[in-house]
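Students often ask why inverse folding is considered easier than folding. One informal answer: many sequences map to the same fold, so there is more than one right answer. In these notes we will look at a single instance of the problem. The structure comes first.
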């Protein structure tokens, strides 16, 4: 049994531009789901404040803490599995914006999270902190900028899907850089940047420590209204560092263990032009030269591409499309890949129906590594119509990708959704999803990857599954809301030869009625999920709630 409530205190001292604040504590009311009551009785507080916001030295302070709150453990393309635990974040930032002087902004963030997965025996946790400095200055037409960052993160991954002891991921990183930009004649501009990074990481026992420098220069000009030309050059003295950066995700310390790419570097030179033959027709061409060293060998490739983009009315609707042909030639090799890419979008009204569709396809497109090519296709469409108060929508999407001539690297997904509504009386929605692919286990779930061949086999996770759901809502009388939802999914995962069959099911019911300034709220929530690899029975948790609420302004 639990009694819940919330409050908000907001205001300012002296003047809103001097000090302003907003504090919102809550007890027994989840902030993870705005539609239904949480399974767990989450409590916490959020705080946001501004200091000297009307001056040249503005600052901000933020804080949030949540206890027994819901979270998510993700499998791509399917409903996420539910976690529960405690978390907190804190941030502070201060800036200097004095006219005539370089600007300066400093910020610090830290956070932590402790959680467990319903249906699993072990707990997980993570924490991070980061410090950032940035500055910019305009002098003699040059835009100058500089930055510095330093951070660290640690994650303990529960044994979900793994069937073994929990794993750890640790990352320490720091870096600094600067950039310069200036206008050029003929409506052009030029920019260059340099960045130095230091990385020290341990991903489930695979360690990497190193540093790398990256330099980039680019320019563009538009000598006429129809012609645009551009060129760029980039260099890195550690290609593994670039791969690390491509897999670093926000809020996650998942990093690709690329020990085999040590002592690697890469050059990339690119030039291109586009020309408008008409207001709705464009031609474009590009040349790209890449040189890389990795796996103890030198690689080089040159690619040429040409394409056309077109937009026009078609069969009473609007269409825009683009087609490109790419010829890639790898040095000292018989490999000469002919690539192709195309995309199209179309929308039209047919009577009372509104139809939208899009599709894209690519074959033999370069990845970050010269010797690996990828192919993909995806398409989607939806229709909708309204008959007075009656409305209907339906949609579908499909996607597939993988490395060319590399078995076991494919990932695919498909989804279908449909809804039917009649005014405020009824709104019924249903959906179905299916997905499969390869990825890496992280503290937030499975992260898809597209360069799995260079990963150690015992780190790659194979996943696949299906899920479906239905929801219903109605306002049969004014100020009365009734809603219900149901979702179910099943997935199979395999890592290092350990397979797991996973199940998820949730039910939610909500009723809310407003009378005068008061709200009567009631509902039911149920969650059931389990993982065969955990060796325990699926977890089933239910919550029933009813309450009366009203807002009061005390001041």
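Output (designed amino acids):
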């Amino acid at each position: 049994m639990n009694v819940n409530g919330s409050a908000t205190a907001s205001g300012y001292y002296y003047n809103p531009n001097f000090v302003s604040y907003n504090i919102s504590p809550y007890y027994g009311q989840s902030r993870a789901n705005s539609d239904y009551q949480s399974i767990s009785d989450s409590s916490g507080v959020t705080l946001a404040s501004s200091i000297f916001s009307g001056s040249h030295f503005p600052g901000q302070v933020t804080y949030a803490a949540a206890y027994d709150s819901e979270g998510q453990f993700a499998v791509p393309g399917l409903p996420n599995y539910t976690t529960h635990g405690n978390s907190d974040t804190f941030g502070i930032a201060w800036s200097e914006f004095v006219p005539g002087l370089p600007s300066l902004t400093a910020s610090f963030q830290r956070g932590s999270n402790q959680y467990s997965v319903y249906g699993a025996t072990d707990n997980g946790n993570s924490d991070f902190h980061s410090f950032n400095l940035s500055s910019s200055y305009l002098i003699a037409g040059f835009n100058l900028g500089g930055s510095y960052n330093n951070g660290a993160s640690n994650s303990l991954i529960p044994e979900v899907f793994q069937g073994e002891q929990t794993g750890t991921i640790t990352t320490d990183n720091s870096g600094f850089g600067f950039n310069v930009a200036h206008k050029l004649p003929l409506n052009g501009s030029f920019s260059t940047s340099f960045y130095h990074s230091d990385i020290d990481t341990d991903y489930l026992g695979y360690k990497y420590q190193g540093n790398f420098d990256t330099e980039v220069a680019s320019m563009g000009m538009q000598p006429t209204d129809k012609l645009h030309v551009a060129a760029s050059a980039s260099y890195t003295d550690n290609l593994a560092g670039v791969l690390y950066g491509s897999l670093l995700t926000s809020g996650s310390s998942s990093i690709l263990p690329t020990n085999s790419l040590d002592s690697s570097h890469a050059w990339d030179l690119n030039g291109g032009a586009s020309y408008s033959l008409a207001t709705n027709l464009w031609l474009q061409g590009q040349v790209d030269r890449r040189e890389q060293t990795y796996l103890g060998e030198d690689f080089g490739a040159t690619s040429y591409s040409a394409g056309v983009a077109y937009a026009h009315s078609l069969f009473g609707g609007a269409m825009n499309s683009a087609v490109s042909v790419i010829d890639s030639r790898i040095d000292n090799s018989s490999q000469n890949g002919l690539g192709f890419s195309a995309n199209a979008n179309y929308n039209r009204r047919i009577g009372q129906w509104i139809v939208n569709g899009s599709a894209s396809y690519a074959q033999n497109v370069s990845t970050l590594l010269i010797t690996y090519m990828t192919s993909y296709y995806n398409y989607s469409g939806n229709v909708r119509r309204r008959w007075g108060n009656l409305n209907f929508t339906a949609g579908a999407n499909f996607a597939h990708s993988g490395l060319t001539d590399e078995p076991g690297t494919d990932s695919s997904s498909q989804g279908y959704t449909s809804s039917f509504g009649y005014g405020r009386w009824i709104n019924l929605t249903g959906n179905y999803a299916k997905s499969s692919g390869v990825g890496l286990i992280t503290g937030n779930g499975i992260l898809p990857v597209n360069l799995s061949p260079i990963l150690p086999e015992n780190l790659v996770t194979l996943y696949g599954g299906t899920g479906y759901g239905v929801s219903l809502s109605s306002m049969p009388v004014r100020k009365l809301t009734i809603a219900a939802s149901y979702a179910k999914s099943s997935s199979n995962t395999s890592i290092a030869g350990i397979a797991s069959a996973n199940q998820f099911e949730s039910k939610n019911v909500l009723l809310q009625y407003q009378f005068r300034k008061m709200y009567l709220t009631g509902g039911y929530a149920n969650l059931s999920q389990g993982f065969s690899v955990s060796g325990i029975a699926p977890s089933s948790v239910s919550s029933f709630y009813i309450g009366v609420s009203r807002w009061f302004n005390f001041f």
